[in-house]
């Protein structure tokens, strides 16, 4: 279990991020067309998982836009933004923000991803959704980099995540 804060107030996640050097857990998430997707959907590509509580917050929106800019020049990388938002809301956000190089994925059908990646918030006002984290995977789904952002309102370390790619 990891300890993070929300506006300075301690909250807990259900576990720890996958270990660097280890194999990433498979996942089952929902894309914008309501299709189930998993790691095999993005086989052969490096992946950056930008895990956020909700795209409807300033910090989540900022991180998604920043990773979208990087993705414009790196077609060998799949940038995934994973949140508890419904696919309809994710599509609206991406359309309004001009985000077209990041693929939004939803926890809509299950919280298994959040549990398996150790980012499910267990207490406080955000219980049931994800903490803010970044996980970078190579083309074989080996974990290259992880970051659990200690204060949920802070941005991740973009340079460290992008350097891992």
Question: In words, what does this structure look like?
Answer:
The structure is a single chain. With 165 residues, the chain is of the alpha/beta class. It has a single domain (3-164), classed as Glutaredoxin (3-Layer(aba) Sandwich). The chain is 22% helix and 25% strand. It contains four helices and nine strands; from the N terminus they run βββββαβαβαββα. It has helices at 58-71, 87-97, 112-116, 158-164; strands at 3-6, 9-12, 29-30, 36-37, 46-51, 77-83, 102-106, 133-137, 143-148. It has a five-stranded mixed beta sheet with strand order 7-6-5-8-9. A hairpin with a 5-residue loop joins strand 8 (133-137) and strand 9 (143-148). The longest helix has 14 residues, at 58-71. The protein is globular, with a radius of gyration of 14 Å. It starts with a strand and ends with a helix. The relative contact order is 0.26. The mean pLDDT is 94.
Entry summary:
The chain has helices at residues 58-71, 87-97, 112-116, 158-164; strands at residues 3-6, 9-12, 29-30, 36-37, 46-51, 77-83, 102-106, 133-137, 143-148. With 165 residues, the chain is an alpha/beta fold.
What would the keywords be for this entry?
Glutaredoxin, 165 residues, 9 strands, 4 helices, two-stranded antiparallel sheet, 5-stranded mixed sheet, alpha/beta, single chain
| CATH architecture heading | 3-Layer(aba) Sandwich
Give the CATH superfamily.
Glutaredoxin
> How many beta-strand runs?
9
CATH class: Alpha Beta
CA gyration radius, whole angstroms: 14 Å
The average pLDDT value, as a whole number, equals 94
DSSP strand (E) fraction?
A: 15-25%
Overall 3D shape: globular
Q: For the terminal residues, how far apart are their CA atoms?
A: 27 Å
Biggest sheet: strands side by side, in what order? 7-6-5-8-9
The third-level CATH topology is Glutaredoxin
As a percent range, the share of helical residues equals: 10-25%
Low-confidence stretches: none
The number of helical elements comes to 4
Query: What string, H for helix and E for strand, traces the elements in order?
Result: EEEEEHEHEHEEH
Class from helix and strand fractions: alpha/beta
């Amino acid at each position: 279990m990891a300890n993070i804060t929300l506006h300075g107030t301690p909250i807990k996640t259900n576990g720890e991020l996958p270990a660097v050097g280890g194999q990433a857990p498979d996942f089952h998430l929902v894309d914008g067309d309501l299709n189930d997707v998993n790691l095999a959907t993005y086989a052969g590509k490096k992946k950056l998982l930008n895990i956020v509580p909700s795209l409807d917050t300033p910090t989540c929106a900022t991180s998604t836009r920043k990773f979208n800019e990087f993705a414009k020049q790196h077609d060998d990388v799949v940038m995934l933004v994973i949140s508890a938002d419904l696919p309809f809301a994710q599509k609206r956000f991406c359309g309004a923000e001009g985000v077209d190089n990041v693929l939004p994925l939803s926890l809509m059908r299950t919280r298994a991803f959040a549990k398996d990646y150790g980012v499910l918030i267990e207490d406080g006002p955000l219980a049931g959704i994800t903490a803010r984290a970044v996980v970078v995977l190579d083309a074989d789904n080996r974990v290259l980099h992880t970051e659990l952002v200690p204060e949920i309102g802070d941005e991740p370390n973009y340079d460290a995540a992008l350097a891992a790619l």
